[in-house]
Amino acid sequence: MTQSIETAFEVLSEGQLEIVRPGGEGYGPIPGGSTRRGVLARLGKNKLAFVSLCFLILLHLIVFAGPLFWRVPPESMNPAVALSGWSLTHPLGVDDLGRDELSRMLYGGRVTLAVGFASMAFSVILGVIIGTSAAFFGGVTDVLLMRLTDAMMAIPNLFFVLVALTVLGKSPLMVVLVIGFSSWMQVARVVYGETLKWKAYEFVEASVATGASPFRTLVRHILPQTYPSVIVSATLGIAWSILTESAISYLGLGIQPPTPSWGNMLQNAQQYVWTAPMLAVLPGMGVTLVVLAYNFLGDGLRDALDSRY
Asked: What is the CATH code for 2-13+43-304?
């Protein structure tokens, strides 16, 4: 009997049914129950967000599948053709060391996008754990975790990243961890507010009343309600991570040569900006378009995942 009641409230918490009072008056559907089809339909109405989504899908396919067809190694050098322009052999030209620019754009895009996604995943996981724990358990846990969040938000992100990488090293794994650790606070704040809101709903109280453990109540009933906010935060977090990786690589503290990334390609091209401007334009354009597309997509998802629209 207890299991059946808990199962019923799990269904209610997903927004699939209505809660009805004994007298027949309905509370109405639980908010946050948007279907995938409805979300895609609303996202499709936002032309800018939809175009951004299509662009990002196409770009990721090109970057990750392109090296399977364009097999020129990105580290292969031919000084005899250094800084030469576009040709059939080198469609995007070559850099100052005679390395194929198309190959470096593909492999560098792989690295930049992978670092952005991995950093975002780490920051989201950390932010969700801290935000939900603080709001759900309250008391001393709330005070300690949220004051830690406030303290981290008071530190300039880029300054923190530069100091941490200078002290801890510049390996790709360290770059991912440092960027992720510098950006979890926004996610924690958003999830904290969402958890406080859903914690007061009847289906959560019913879960506790049926004897469910705090961990089960948190994971099965509250955490799924925060998914829309987490998805939007993750989308915007990827853009921030990519921009940060490009900035620190440009400063020489991120991904280190000979491994290409769009950031260190910008660093290498700065002294040839007047003689071979495309060496800087191509990676710079890549970073700019990806960051803008993720920002536009995040804005579109914020509206599409809001059940009021």
From this structure: 1.10.3720.10
